[in-house]
Amino acid sequence: MKKEVISSPQNPLFKELKRLSVDSGYMVLEGRRLVADALARGIEPMYAAVTPEYLLLHGPFEGPHYTLSQKLFLRLCDTKNPQGLLVIAEVPFVDISAIQGIERIVILDRLQDPGNVGTIIRTADAFGFGAVVITPSSAAPFSPKAIRASMGSCLGLKIVRAVPREVSSLPHRIITLDAHGESVMSGDLFRSPMAICLGQEASGVSPELTAISNCCVRIPMKGDTESLNVAVAAGIVMACAAGIFPLS
Questions:
Q1: pLDDT tens for residues 5-23?
Q2: Which one of 3, 63, 195, 224 is least enclosed by Cβ atoms within 10 Å?
């Protein structure tokens, strides 16, 4: 039996999908690779939606789903050229107690650009960091742009929302990256358990987090540039912390 194609924007189901797609408590995962990755990681969709064109090209989607007209489907998407498949799921934040035993974590303090947030999460995953702490006023790590930038790594790491007071309860040595830090970055600074703290693109780490940091480090640079893009700086410091590019 052919499944009904939902084509009216007044359809109650479409209205619910549209509501959830802009609700910060939920995330929209678009495309075959990202959806497959999410399902493999145990993410449970609340809804799955496909287009008739997707079904013609790829065959039936395994699991409960709804079929939307291409026009309605586009109204749920953030990408310019969607593949015709998406799922909506609850954002998988965890409590800060769940990361107490993780040896290496990253703290993102008030980062504004979701692309930077997603890129740092992806880099953290690549260098063996197991969790990311997001402070208030930071870009959402499960927004469409951040999800795309993380290439799905946001679904594999433990991600926590926390204020500085909660961060201070962690057993980790907090190392804050600061262009004017008193210590030059070196491999021997990164002893586990540790947390690397990265601040807002313009103003850096907040005074509250700086006050509870164990040390502030700077990346040695030979050129005249005063600072680096925060995602680039994050990659350098995490590679050093992981022992990939040790500095003496």
A1: 999 999 999 999 999 999 9
A2: 224
